[in-house]
Amino acid sequence: MTPLFERICLEDVDRSDELFSMSFEPDLSRLRESVKRVGILEPLWLREKGGRFQIVGGFRRFDTALSLREERVPALIWKGEQLEDMRAFWMSLHSNVTARGLNPVEKGLVLGKLLDHFRLSRKEVIRTAMPLLGLEPSEKILSGFLLLNGFPTPLKRYLLSHGASLATVSLLGRFTGEEQESLAGFLAPLRLGENVLREILTFMWEISRRDGVRVDEVISGEEMRRLLSDGRLSGPQRIEAIRRVLREKRYPRLSALEETFRSARKRMRLSPKILLKPPPFFEGNRFRIEIGFETLEEYRAALSELRDLPEESINSLLAIKGYGGDTHGTGLP
Prior knowledge:
Elements: E1 4-9, E2 13-14, H1 29-38, E3 44-49, E4 52-57, H2 59-67, E5 72-78, H3 85-99, H4 104-116, H5 122-132, H6 139-149, H7 153-162, H8 166-172, H9 177-187, H10 194-211, H11 215-219, H12 222-229, H13 235-250, H14 252-268, E6 274-277, E7 288-291, H15 296-307, H16 311-318
Helix pairs in contact: 4-6, 6-8, 7-9, 8-10, 10-13, 12-13, 13-14
């Protein structure tokens, strides 16, 4: 099974056959500079197929040589019967893992090919491929990485540049392909932490399913468009405003009660050492007051301030009642 070494004309290679490709939009700039200076040092791995050559390993080197208008490349060539598909794939996978490592999108691509093309069982993929890819061998993690294969390219780019947990990937997998395209464009200019990203995605999912509208309709609403185009907002300010708008849309009654409470508290003009808290989610009618003090005088002053509050101020708080229609969890009403 010893391959032959030859310099092969690029035109004789079938670049469209990507059975053994494991790359997602690779950055070839460094390799390009290297090839320009010293040429291709490591031969491509090729297999004879249908009168042409199929790439087993070296897609990046081939693309670099093509972009530099090279005519020939060094290659190790196997006869078709010398190297069967499964062995060729494992050779390519081991080479990629040891030489450069694979990003999450590429790992999903590998796992998908093993299942769909090579017809390995899920148990076999979990046992053999996932440890090689540096993944915990579990059905849950396999399912998460396979979801990535169905995402549109812009969303894959976003996840690679910003990072995301499998929980976030699973949440994104609930949206349709068109919605994922819209989300990719919406998220691209925002630098979101993991928790904020999941919160925003959850709000969008629940609003769209509750109201029977597409996610792009939620994104393209007048208020959202204004926030995205407002050049006066800093990045964090824009993100906080988007969170607020989505939260108000998801929990309109709770948001209205919170605004009523803020207004009532503002009219009371309490000193900073007195903290007034509503019932959690306004479920129930019991309010809480916390007093911060360091001296006896501060303690007495706070008590005096509370004692002198007008009755109408207290009654305005007690009138804020009866929340319970919105849902605070991840389910829908």
